Amino acid sequence: MAARWPLIAALMCSATLAADGDCSISRLHLSEPPYENYILSDCHSSSHVIVTSPVSGGREVDPRLLIAWPSGSSGIAAYFEPENGVKGSLGLHLENSSISGNALEPVNLGSTGPNNNPRVGVTGLIHFDSPAILTLPIMGSTRTIRDYSEGGRILQPEIQNAVAVVPGDIAGGAAIYRDWLDKQTTTWLTFAQAGDVDAVKIIPGDKYTLRFGKGTYNFTATFNYPQMGQLSPQQVLNSASQDLISQNPDQTTSLSFLSYKNKILAGTWRFLTYFGRDSMISVLLMRSILSEGEGGAIEGAIAAVIERINKTDGTVCHEEVIGDYAAWLNHQKGIDSTAPSCDYKMVDTDYFLPIVMQDYFLDTDAGESRVSDFLNTKASFLQENAGTSYRQLAQATAEKIMKTSAPFASSQTVENLIHLNNGESVGEWRDSSNGLGGGRTPYDVNTALVPAGLRAIGRLARADFFEGRDDWKTLADEYAQVWEDKTLDFFKVTIPANEARDLVNQYVKQAGLAAPSSTEKITGDIVFHGLALNGDNNQPIVRVMNTDDCFRLYFLDPTNQTQLSAFLDQVANNILAPFPVGLSTEVGLFVANPAYGGSQSYADNWSNNQYHGTVVWSWQLAMMAAGLERQLDRCGRDKPDFCNDDTLRKKVISAYNHLWDLIDANRAELSGEVWSWKYDNGFQAVPFSAYSDTESDIRQLWSLTFLAVKRKTGYT
Ligand SMILES: *[C@@H]1O[C@H](CO)[C@@H](O)[C@H](O)[C@H]1NC(C)=O
Ligand SMILES: *[C@@H]1O[C@H](CO)[C@@H](O)[C@H](O)[C@H]1NC(C)=O
Ligand SMILES: *[C@@H]1O[C@H](CO)[C@@H](O)[C@H](O)[C@H]1NC(C)=O
Ligand SMILES: *[C@@H]1O[C@H](CO)[C@@H](O)[C@H](O)[C@H]1NC(C)=O
Ligand SMILES: *[C@@H]1O[C@H](CO)[C@@H](O)[C@H](O)[C@H]1NC(C)=O
User: Fold this and answer.
1) CB–CB of 356/314 below 8 Å?
2) Distance CA 600, CA 327 (A)
3) Integer Cα distance of 280 and 318 in angstroms
4) Which stretches does DSSP call E strand in 402-490?
């Protein structure tokens, strides 16, 4: 099919296109060996190209050219092997165009195919250091690519068998294409000689392989799926924050790449789609800089969440399934449909919705003026919600929260807390298999998100957001008070100093840690709140020190003074103490410290090659900083007791400043999703992918929140 549609000269988008208003091209090159990342957008499409090439002394990698597109969360992965060398030894890189000097140019071939959508994408020059074979092309959804690339090596015959190889339009070239299950869309990857190199050779067989000589080839990757309206950096930021564009070109370009009229995307390239938790945490942390009003970033993000609610039970969608992957999942069920769907397995995501609605619709002028138009909007994204108003959908979520929080409000037992759903091993942000250590009852959800969600429902009810729910105007706060005051103790772990020293020394051996044990820093009981209750092997509490304290700091103004002071004391201690006693290292706060678990399996399950192990997540640093700020700012407002306790208040301020020193020292890492470390005379940042098949996203939405979260000075 590709061969029959002539590759007429690609229309290069020049710097400005009058017809489209502001159509400037934005580019970003981000190097994180063995990954070279190139991000490109113009007004027609946006693309992220990643070239993976082995680096000497590095981990074994699969040489790969990957193109990821936000629209339809789609992409192409082309895996290469050297014709003669050892598997994995092929070096490849992009060459700059001798004409433009750029590595990539956008392509717009105009309307094509049965759907008449523009065929768009990118073109560039790829160089092979030695003769190369393209052994495996995967074309369609980024999910399909991840199922293969993230250790699973899963390939779907229905998808792979539809990949076809044909000679190129230009002699010496070749094209690979695949028609999607929607019978409308096609993805193409074409290669042509660029200069004096061997012609691309199609190697027949049941596998679709191409042979390239040593040298440089032109590649063009295109697809004709409907494109989404991207928000330019100017459009994604509010008018007061436009200066950020010149001050932080990388982060604002990245934010724009992830921001579209109808949704914001969690990260690139792996999570180039809607995620509820990521969207709402990002809006909350960046609300002061994002564009407001109809068509702005905040409303687009909140609308995306509401559109995807399960209206029957009010559950907020965790991850959407769209594009070719949606069609494929439908096919598995015998349904010939492209209808999108949602994953509803998370138990934390619901609570963010009333919080983010309160934050925008009650606390900003722009939001306040938009309440009725917004709430009366009729949903259209999911077939099952079509015609239902945003008000009804948001109310369904509030109903669910009120209903499920009622039992604990009347009787404070572990059983009445919120647990992961039956049959699911994950349910909140630590959603890897070892993230919660098998725990069923997560700390962040129960001690922070439930009460904060209830407080928000109370305020929204008093502002008449809900129909026929006058009772919530007081009831939600009554519930909230119980959840706020009575949950923390269930998670508390107190370890006497002597025992703590033994555990840390033992951990240093178990983990083979080259860093000092720092046990001289243990001067009293070690106190923290465990990650979850009901862990593996009948453990009542998963004894991992962690950064999830940031949820309570950021989302609540607790009023039990004894409890608040004690909580802030342990937060500050754990931030200030060096790992493995506390959470602090030169590369940031580790989201988990398993040193007090007391067994080899704790050391193994939360190591530096685990997604939620002894690693640093940027957004946790942002929320911790914003959370400490919220509590310290109360000293100028409702003055909780800790404000008058000089020793404690100063300790909290030093924890805040220490955290900011770590944030400032790691600016180079901050916009990424997660990073790991090696120890060599101190902790040094290492890309997470150096230790794991899971590549971290080079740019993650909620890691861009440092555009808005800044160090506050003047605390005394
Ligand atoms: C392409 O150009 C950039 C910026 O000028 C330069 O840093 C890079 O090394 C060039 N790439 C190659 C392969 O020459
Ligand atoms: C690759 O070839 C296509 C088709 O001839 C052309 O439009 C495009 O500009 C070329 N790309 C580069 C980077 O030279
Ligand atoms: C929506 O919730 C209802 C009630 O819990 C459930 O039966 C249904 O399967 C859910 N829908 C989806 C698509 O998960
Ligand atoms: C560590 O992971 C293994 C395998 O999932 C599990 O059996 C074990 O109980 C875990 N240990 C802890 C302390 O969570
Ligand atoms: C405050 O919290 C502490 C510690 O959890 C508890 O002992 C105390 O009874 C609480 N005070 C009130 C007034 O609820």
Assistant:
1) no
2) 44
3) 11
4) 441-442
Single-letter amino acid code for the residue at 35: Y
Whether ligand 5 lies within 6 angstroms of the CB of 562 is answered as yes
Question: How is residue 381 written in tokens?
Answer: 């994204």
Please, what sign has the CA dihedral across residues 660, 664, 669, 672?
positive
Is the minimum distance from the CB of 321 to ligand 3 under 6 angstroms?
no
Is 364 a pocket residue for ligand 5 (Cβ < 6 Å)? Answer: no
- Please indicate, yes or no, if residue 13 is contained in any of the structural domains: no
Ligand 5 centroid from CA 27, angstroms: 55
Neighbour tally for 269: CB within 10 Å = 27
Structure tokens at 204: 């027949």
Distance CA 22, CA 520 (A): 60
Q: How many structural domains are present in the chain?
A: 2
Return d(Cα 597, Cα 584) in angstroms, integer.
Answer: 18
pLDDT digits (tens, 9 = 90+) for 292-341: 999 999 999 999 999 999 999 999 999 999 999 999 999 999 999 999 99
What is the residue range of 203's domain? Answer: 26-223
Ligand 2 atom 1: the closest Cα is on which residue?
218
**194 falls within a domain:** yes
**Residue 206: Cβ-neighbour burial (10 angstroms; 0-12, 13-18, 19+):** exposed
Ligand 1 mean position to 456 CA, how many Å?
51
Where does a domain end: 177, 202, 223?
Answer: 223
Q: Burial, 135: exposed, middle or buried (Cβ in 10 Å; 0-12, 13-18, 19+)?
A: middle
Query: Which of 170, 195, 223 marks a domain boundary?
Result: 223
CB atoms within 10 A of CB 620: 24
CA distances in angstroms from 228 to 41, 142, 231, 264, listed in the order given: 12, 16, 9, 11
Distance CA 458, CA 364 (A): 18
Contact (CB, 8 A) for 511 and 608: no
Q: How far apart, in whole angstroms, are the C-alpha atoms of residue 42 and residue 40?
A: 7
pLDDT tens, residue by residue, 18-73: 334 467 899 999 999 999 999 999 989 999 999 999 998 878 889 999 999 999 99
How many alpha carbons fall within 13 Å on the CB side of residue 58?
22
308 in a domain, yes or no? Answer: no
